[in-house]
Structure formats: structure tokens, C-alpha cells
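Aim 2 progress update. The chain analyzed this quarter is reproduced below.
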Amino acid sequence: MFLVWPFLSAERAPAIIDALVRRVRRVVYLSSLGVSDERDRQTDLINQFHADLERLIKRSGLDWTMLRSSGFATNLYQWAPQIRDGDVVRAPYARATRSLIDGRDIAGVAVRALVEGGHEAATYALTGPDSLTTVEQVQTIAQAIGRPLRVEERPPGEAREQLLGWLPADADADGVLDVWASFVTHPEPVTATVEEITGTPARSLHEWALAHADAFRATPIRRTP
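Predicted C-alpha cells:
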């Protein structure tokens, strides 16, 4: 089973893992690159529930593989409304640096881990091939859609208010902002794991942006005759 956990805590996980033990023999779990094996408690809510799930799976007796992924390229859809409506992206931490990954590359590794031998008890760090600042990410989208864009750094407090509008009620908006801020001084690393497992290099953010450019283009106005 390829397991993606949809909640922000591991509260319901023991019952789910018990059910899996009765039905499957191998679990490939989509975890987070931010999980640290050196910490008993992680620094934020998201990495904590991932660490809790990893621990439960490892204790279950199932064969397991952990895919610790960097940020998803699809998270950049959060900027799509701003880009469709203008040429300015307002975002916190313009110098935050991330190695965003195309979901197709996560899927490629997951398939190998599910159908091949040799991936049991392995923890894989999955990233895109480049580590780019927020400004560079926006410029990558600009190149894909063929028009100039610029970044206007927004205060963390303003970003927090926006986060509260779309995060679940039990989410820790301050914790999310703290993680984003940490990427300014501690950029996400770049690994070659995708290529090592699949034989194909990880897709660049430029490739992802070209494939999804229509999501950032203004919708043409339909005129009635």
C-alpha cells in the first residue's frame, strides 16, 4: 500500500495501522524531508505527525519504505490567482530556498518501492534537482507563461492571516510560518535519489511549470456575439 496521511495528527493512526497489518504486507509511506531522526519531538506540527506515523509503521511488523519528500511543486498553485490577475506575487520570505519536487517523480519512486525487492526498511530523501528561492520560483513560472512577474515580500503577520483562511482549524499557522522562515537560513538540500531509484533524473521546476502553465495564465474572457 502507498500511504498518504490526510490528517494533521497521528491520533487515528494506530487503528489504521492495525487494519493494514491484517490486509497488506508492505507499506510505502509518503513522509516529509523535514523529519529528523535525532529529535524526540519535531519542531512543527507537520513534521511531528509524519514522525509519529513513521514510528507506528516501523513498530507494526510490516515491510516498510519511507519516502521523505521535499516541498511539492504543486504547492505553487497557491500563487495562481495572483498571477492570473496581475504581475505581482505577494509571498513571505522571498529568500526561502526549496528543492521542490514534481509529484510524478514521487510516484515513480513509490512504484519501484512497491513492486521491486530491495527497498525494505529504506528511508529515501526525495527532492527536485534544484534549490531555488521564492523569487527564483516565481521567475521560473514567469518564463513558462511568457510574461514578467515580480515578488513583493509580505510581512509574516499578513501571511499568517491568509494561512488561517485555508488551513484546517486545528493547524498551527505559526508553525507553518516558522518552517518557511527556516528555509531562509537552512535551504532544503538537493538529492539524486529519484535518479538512483528510477534511472531518470528528477524533473526540474522549469519542466513542471511548462507542463502546468495554463493554471497560471489569465482565463480568456468569452464575448457573446
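The beta strands are 2-3, 26-32, 63-69, 88-91, 97-98, 122-126, 132-133, 150-153. The two ends are 53 Å apart (CA to CA). These observations will guide the mutagenesis experiments scheduled for the next reporting period.
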